[in-house]
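Quick one: structure for this chain?
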Amino acid sequence: MKHSELIAEIKAAFEDEPYPGDANIVYDNTGFHLECIEIRDAFKGHKWHEVPEDVLSTERTGLAFMSKAGFKYYLPTFMKSVLDDSSIVDDGIGMIVQLLKLPAEIDIAVVAEQIQRHDVSSMLPDVDLNEVLQNQLTQTNSGISTFIARAGQFTAMQGRVIHHFLVYVRDEFGDDFLSTEAELAIQRYWFQFA
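Got it. Here's what it folds into:
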């Protein structure tokens, strides 16, 4: 997909997305999380397609601190910035891709299910594999839940745009780390929107 086509697709998919409200931009509005306060204040009142370049330049990693609603609303801002001028969000491209990638910890959940299905624990009586995996799962469920909550809110059209964006990053960065991470993001979740 051409650069200009992808930008047009982003605009079309998100043009009617409602502003989440000033109090719903970041995940922590208690007033104690300094990053969240800074990001909320920088983005509040700005429509996703009108965020000033200086805000994006200063708050390159702001997407990571956004609430579910803020993430959905401002993701196209960051995607479009990468396409318009990747130097603005140079440090943030990897972060965007990471936030769009189902955490590797999902593999632990698959292993846990396979251990139960095949009763592997009975083959290793001195090791409580279920306990080991449950401890690991307790720590990782938060990341998976956050990803599912964020990713599950996009419409099919928006999901296709995200898929196309990841394909663009994969192809644009060739053998770079970003290419590999974008491909993993596609394979773990966004493939379904191809």
